[in-house]
Amino acid sequence: MSIEKIIQFVQSSHYEQMNSTGAKVKLLRQAIGEYQSSLGLQRLEWTEHGVVGKFIANKQYDMKNPQLFDLLENHGVLSKVVRIKLKQLNETEKLLLQEFCTAGNTYLRFTPIRGIGGHNEEELILYRKYVTNKNINHLLDQWKHYKRIYSSFVEHWESIRNLACKEMLSTNQHKVTLPAGKLSIVIPDPNIDTDAAYKMGGGKLLQRSGKINMEQVRLYVAKGYFSLSKVYELLHVQNIQTKYLLLTLTSERNMMEGLVQQNNRYSWINIQSEAAWKE
Question: Would you state the pLDDT for residue 101?
Fold first, then answer.
């Protein structure tokens, strides 16, 4: 049984090792990021290690600008680019939209008994002292070593957790108490049909209760409904946070190839749309 595999994973100390190695990966990433920051380099590649570090600025926009919602509504795509948050609806709206809801993806949450499964703080303090005076090559080797172990643990944990989730759903169990904690089926908010919501409450309802999906906005930009520059004119920056990424060169290459494929998809959609507009 999948639940027994969860118990074995926790009781065999694998759960604790997963959290411990995860804490070390985080500590090493921070130390390597501080080293790179001291050099003032936004991107630094360690070719011999197959690793790259990157500082990326994440802009957080005001996604509630009424003018942006007006732009999307005037072009007839507002209900196509917004996802409604259930908690933003009042009880009457929830009741009226109940038949237009589809279930979200359930997942399994494991809550360990206090003191079980977390990383050993004393061990982490000792490890922090150990790496303090180590050179960058040693830090990179350590990061790759623990990253590989951590990824293996996480992959196995996610696999048995997903199987246990299916098993519990099939037997209509929503909570299971284990010797080391408890398993709980988490049912996220349902997906609400935004077309139905728009017909019911118009743009004001979607603006009050919805969140704009920028990937969907870019899709309609590619289709020629409006320009991306016009959208960004209405996106006011609220905050800029710098994030440090440490990844293998293979992962970076795959990430860049994914972006290229996405841009090629948008370009193809744009070409097809331009042809359709001319007909």
Answer: 94
